[in-house]
Amino acid sequence: MRISRAARVGQYTALLAYLVFLAFPFLWLVSTAFKPPRELGSLHPTWIPKDPTLGNFRQAFDEQPLLHAAFNSLIAALGAAVVAVLIATPMAYVVARRRTRLAKAVTGWVVVSQAFPFVLLIIPLFLVLKNLRLINSVPGLVLVYVVWALPFALWMLAGYVRAVPPELEEAAAVDGAGRVRTLVSVTAPLLAPGIVATGLFAFITAWNEFFFALVLLKTPEKQTLPVVLTHFIGAEGVADLGPLAAAAFLATLPSLVVFAIIQRRITGGMLTGAVKS
Amino acid sequence: MTTVTEAPPPSPPGRRAGRRRSGEDRPRRAVDHGAWFLVLPALIPILVLSAGPLLYGILLAFTDAQSGRTEPTQWIGALNFRDLLHDTLFWESFRIGLVWAVGVTVPQFLLALGLALLLNQDLRLRWLARALAIIPWAMPEVVVGIMWRLVYSPDAGILNETLRDLGMGGGRDWLSGLATALPAVILVGVWAGMPQTTVALLAGLQNTPRELHEAAAVDGAGAWRRFRTVTWPALRPIALAITALNLIWNFNSFALVYVLTSGGPGGRTRLPMLFAYEEAFRYGQFGYAAAMGCVMVAVISIALAVFLAGRLRGGDDT
Fold first, then answer.
1. Which residue among A120, A277, B133, B251 is least crowded, i.e. fewest CB within 10 A of its CB?
2. CA B23 to chain centre
């Protein structure tokens, strides 16, 4: 299709505006993280630190138990991802392959669960976990994260299952493979990339999660990274900007890396779900 | 990606039964029994930790449950709801929640639509825009909040500095100003949620057949005409679904505003979730906060029902 010169200029101007809008807060975060206190106090802040320093990072680690928090986050996110995928995959298979009432109920529940205000879930969960003595414990949080990650995991995985042509399974069956063998040697390998993508996505959402962690984890040595980050902001909302930026920047890196890897797969899985609903 | 979105061809009845080792003649229903043990590992946690607490939460709304109280919890009927009806602060936060949800969702949709249309063209910097659009999505909400606090910071922030450079004043404390706080957090909400919407719309665009566009162009339809007659009808189902989800997500959001303003100044940005959180976990009013949750669920369900009814009337959305 021919596009006029004026239209092209308009397109590039718009694209540039988007690039600036999307990038500038993040660039500012990075810039702030490397600024020495003198430059942070300056009334005329600059984009590029004149005298870049790693001091903010050192101070951030001194002020808050960041390593410990990162470890808690890692355990919570890894636990949630692994368990969620393990229990969601078989169910997703059933949901995708059979048009039963169960499949419809699951789809309905996935939609409805998106609409929960978490406060209605967290109060009873808080009471239940308190009785189980799982308040202020990372395993308690994993339990919550698993259930919280399940709808989306089911949704994504069901999409991946549908992408595996049933004919392949049928061909294996005709060749005399049993049901279990068909699943293990035909379906599972084709599903593996989708399972990994779903797991990584569950990992990221748990790594980034804040509300449940805020309510369920009481003491600093149990808290996850997002909760510990808020401690940099004082009671009066006064923050030590340098270490705050440094810690926030570090907390984002794992998400960014994983997300860059799985980005295409997530969008594929998500949309399959969205279009099917 | 397109192959994924296509429905699998329906297999003729009875063919699947052939997969079973035993008895080809068995009725197909017998196969479904085996499915239960595949379903239970996920179903049990769902029932125990999601559906159960939800029902429990609804029950709590009818009690005077409080944290750390020694007397037993009493059943008080609809008293919480009656109090809630007269709680002007709650309705104020409800109104703020609606303003926030619409205020974020609408600009977000329009901006995302623009970006998706651009990314659907053959432009040179497309890869960069795609990569950048992922950043807000991958970031923890807490970090997004912190980041924008740095941007809005009264003296060390880049926003004021840029405004000063442009000769438009500056030195404002955006997040503490009674008038500026809500617009300021809304802008952050727009920024943070744009990627998901963009990606969804972009996929919708990529599913619209190119030939239709070309045919319309040959017929002499201008860009706007082509958008209205070809692009939009194809995009509508995804646009509606993502907008409905965004409205709900935004109405229920918490972390972003908690980090940016904690609901201040003077409650100007106190979203319903922030209000309910404070009620439950600062003041220990579990029953009352649960009642708030119920009101939120009720409103969302009604909105969702109206939306779904409209969608069904809208016709073929599969």
1. A277
2. 48
| Pairwise CA distance, residues B59 & B75, whole Å | 9
B107 burial level (CB within 10 Å; 0-12, 13-18, 19+): middle
Q: Is the pLDDT of residue B18 over 90?
A: no
**Contact at CB, B138 and A256, closer than 8 angstroms:** yes
B133 contacts A271? CB cut-off 8 A: no
Whether the CB-CB separation of A264 and A45 falls below 8 Å is answered with no
On chain B, the residues whose CB falls within 8 A of the CB of A105 are none
Q: How many domains does chain A have?
A: 2
pLDDT at position A251 is 92
Same domain, A89 and A222: yes
The per-residue pLDDT for range A195-231, each reduced to its tens digit, is 998 999 899 999 999 999 999 999 989 999 999 999 9
Domain of residue A47, residue span: 5-52
Among B202, B216, B199, B200, residue whose Cα is nearest residue B120: B202
Kindly list the residues from chain B whose CB atom is less than 8 angstroms away from the CB atom of residue A128: 53, 56
Q: Are A113 and A228 in a shared domain? A: yes
Residues A113 and A196 in one domain: yes
Whole-model pTM above 0.90? no
Q: Which of B39, B128, B155 sits opposite A91 (nearest CB)?
A: B39
Domain shared by A48 and A63, yes or no: no
Instruction: For an interface test with B, give the residue of A22, A114, A227, A257 to mutate (most B CBs within 10 A).
Output: A22
- Cβ distance B216 to B159 under 8 Å? no
Whether B132 and A170 lie within 8 Å, measured CB to CB: no
Is there a single domain that holds both residue A32 and residue A95?
Answer: no
pLDDT exceeds cutoff 50 at A25: yes
CB–CB contact B272 A147 (8 Å) = no
Mean pLDDT of A84-109: 84
The reply to whether A38 falls in a domain is yes
Question: Model confidence at A273, in pLDDT bands (50, 70, 90)?
Answer: very low
Alpha-carbon gap: A217 to the closest alpha carbon of chain B (Å): 12
